[in-house]
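Project outcomes to date are best conveyed with an example. Our students and postdoctoral researchers have been running inverse folding experiments weekly, and each run begins with a structure described purely in tokens. The record below, which covers 281 residues, was selected by the lab manager from last quarter's runs and is presented without edits.
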């Protein structure tokens, strides 16, 4: 089953319908190529500083960096894109008070190596959270094509429909599809969808810029407070600061004394919880 593609002008509800049905969808050229090339200008020098490796799990032929939104102001456009925000609101919004950035980075696949084992974003939480088909969605993943993705250069492998499978079901090779897409496009998948890096059989690396969102009460995969510490975060758009986690989840989860609950990079003279009944501190 191929991965369904939609145009960037498609209504968010139509994109969501495909995502919920298949567990994955490609949004073609969501970011224009000139903007994406400017973003690549920020991350390419950082990737060039890294050695090719990654071990068995990553097929030995990848380079990667984290803390994506610390590498240049252009990159802030990715998680703040209206289509991205609309999908996150619809997928994760019903399951939390606020959602947050979960993991971020750029990943480059070079020639050689092998396919990454198929896995799920939720695997990091086993055995405490199992990928059950009828459970709510906790993670939403976006992979943007920094360079064009082709079957030959290692486009991400995904298994449409696997978000509805029992956790122990294995995918046959004929059930695997690749996210073939032009530069600036995004492939989006759910936390229960099987996926993995492909093998690059060309002489040119392929680069993806990625980030995921998770519900705000879940431990983030990448420690955003060390990746983008508060003094650096203050230079970012306020909504991005919130997404990084500089925002409390509800009244009591993640509060900081002397900081505004809605934007914790700002200080407040108010003493939090002093007059709140039922808090025994």
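After processing, the design step wrote out the following sequence:
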């Amino acid at each position: 089953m191929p991965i369904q593609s939609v145009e960037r002008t498609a209504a968010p509800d139509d994109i969501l319908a495909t995502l919920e049905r298949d567990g994955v969808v490609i949004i073609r050229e969501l970011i224009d190529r000139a903007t994406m090339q400017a973003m690549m200008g920020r991350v390419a020098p950082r990737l060039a500083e890294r050695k090719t490796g990654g071990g068995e799990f990553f097929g030995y032929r990848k380079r990667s960096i984290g803390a994506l939104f610390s590498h240049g102001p252009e990159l802030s456009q990715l998680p703040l894109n209206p289509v991205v925000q609309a999908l996150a609101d619809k997928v994760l919004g019903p399951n939390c008070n606020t959602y947050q950035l979960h993991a971020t980075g750029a990943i480059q696949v070079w020639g050689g190596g092998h396919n990454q084992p198929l896995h799920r974003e939720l695997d990091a939480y086993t055995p405490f959270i199992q990928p059950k088909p009828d459970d709510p969605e906790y993670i939403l993943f976006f992979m943007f094509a920094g360079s064009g993705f082709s079957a030959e250069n290692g486009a991400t492998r995904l298994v449409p429909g696997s978000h509805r499978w029992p956790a122990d079901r294995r995918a046959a090779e004929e059930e695997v599809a690749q996210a073939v897409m032009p530069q600036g496009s995004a492939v989006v998948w759910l936390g229960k969808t099987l996926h993995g890096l492909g093998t690059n059989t060309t002489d040119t690396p392929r680069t993806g810029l990625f980030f995921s969102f998770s519900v705000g009460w879940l431990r983030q995969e990448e420690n955003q407070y060390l990746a983008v510490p508060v003094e650096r975060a203050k230079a970012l758009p306020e909504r991005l600061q919130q997404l990084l986690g500089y925002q409390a989840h509800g009244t009591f989860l993640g509060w900081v004394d002397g900081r505004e609950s809605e934007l914790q990079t700002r200080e407040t003279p108010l003493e939090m919880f002093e007059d709140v009944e039922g808090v025994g501190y």
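The longest helix spans residues 33-48. The mean pLDDT is 93. The training component of this project remains on track.
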